[in-house]
Design a protein that fits this description.
Rossmann fold
Amino acid sequence: MVKRGFVMQKYFSVNEQGSSIRCKLYCDSPKGVKKAVLYGHGFSGHKDNKAAQRFAEYVLKKHRDVAIVTYDAPCHGDDVKKKLSLSDCGAYIGAVAGHIKGQLGADELYAYATSFGGYQYLKYITENSNPFRRIALRSPAVNMFDVLSARIMTPDERKALSQNKPVSVGFDRKIRVTQSFLDELKEADITVRDFHAYADEILILHGTKDEVVPFDVVEAFARKNNIRFISVENADHRFIDPKHMDIAVKEAAGLFGL
């Protein structure tokens, strides 16, 4: 374990069902962890996420019994899978959540996710036993099929997919996307699912200037499901402005009692 400033960081892997999930742990000490937060990154993101580190540093200044865990989603970061699928995304969430509770011994588990990560977590809780006490979502891509196909992919990439040719898609890093994955996203439309049973445990923050995930779509999703929604004026998709990111960090931490 390496200490960066006052925060301890450790890389580790969760090996389950033939997968090796690359993870990163932020904590004061792996012993005595009472609360843990599982952080889910966005499309083409990875476990060495600056937003996750910022959140960890904020929380660990005040709480020595908390751990924050990030991980590489399937086909992201250092993950070795070659084909992206929603079933693997869900399996990774379950495996890392189980590791946190079993190996770290955390009594309480929370989730903080952004963009594609937000979509994955919302999908997961409707299909599995919900392991999270509270869930904070920043810029969640609730309409992930539309976001990927119309906002992230280029016309040339969409044309290639229609011809059954995989394409490399993304922002800082590129992710291999197939037509079968796009079909999975279209089929798994979470905007038509009912989240009222989870509404009291969820908080959504979204920027009014989000250029990737339309603000009005997410606002309507939150209103439809009675989910608490915080509008962050002039924030873009990534909350690049530190002032906007600070709002998200403090609201998420407050939701978790941190």
